[in-house]
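Incident log, structure service

09:12 report received: a user says their structure output differs between two submissions of the same chain.
09:20 pulled the input from the user's history:
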Amino acid sequence: MIPATFEYVRARSVRQAVSLLQQHAGRAKLLAGGHSLLPLMKLRLAQPEMLIDLGPVDELRGIRDEGMSLVIGALTTHDEVATSPLVREKVPLLAECAAQIGDVQVRNRGTIGGNLAHADPAADYPAAILALEAQMECEGPAGTRTVPATQWFVDLLTTALGPDEVLCRVRVPVQTEGQGWSYTKLPHPASGYSLLGVACLVTVDGGVCRDARVAVTGAGPKAVRLTKVEQALVGKRLDQAAVAEAAKLASDGLEATDDLYASAEYKRHLAVVYTKRGLLRALERAAG
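09:34 re-ran on a clean worker, output below:
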């Protein structure tokens, strides 16, 4: 199909993009990689009167090491995240997640900012972002504000990003010694979207779990932390039996939805299977 008529502007700065969003008061859309927005426009499910292309805004690109965290520009592509020596060394969980997104074409055009702003319930990044306790840095009319991952994902295709704000950067804490990680998923065979994906980050000291973060995507309307699994792991000496018992809690209270590809019941089953699989992989890495 053909999109409805719209005006197209190439923004030269974040401030210009924010100004245009203000002027059009909810009737403008930001364009990054375009993988999600353009299909919606072709189906006329989205009909913005203006499309603001962020492509020329160089300040939204790149990966910067700030010691305790990496700062990743919103226009950084999935492939750049997946292949960056800096990300692979400092935040390997994020690199592993990015490498599993879509296909080669998607990874070379799609951006981390566009992915997180769109918040597709089957996207991969949200699980990793939650497990890593990243922060999203946004700019709007009132200036810059930071939103923690725990507050970012609100509902289906809904985030804490304001209608006149631009997601500029993602600040990701670096992983530390003794941490094991994994991102495991069941991909849709055509799109590569996650039918269900689990991100795990565990800190082990002397064989005992000191901290655990487990997040799931693809099950329901938004990615969530599996707090019952996390609580079952902390303070325990981790072995296969302990991991298996904790993983059983992955489906406990999990909001899962039926869709064209899987029932809610099946997704809850997958949550248990992939949580166990991911935790065992993370434990193996924590052991060295």
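09:41 both user submissions now match this output. Likely a transient worker issue. Closing.
09:42 reviewer note: The longest helix spans residues 264-286. The chain has a mean pLDDT of 96.
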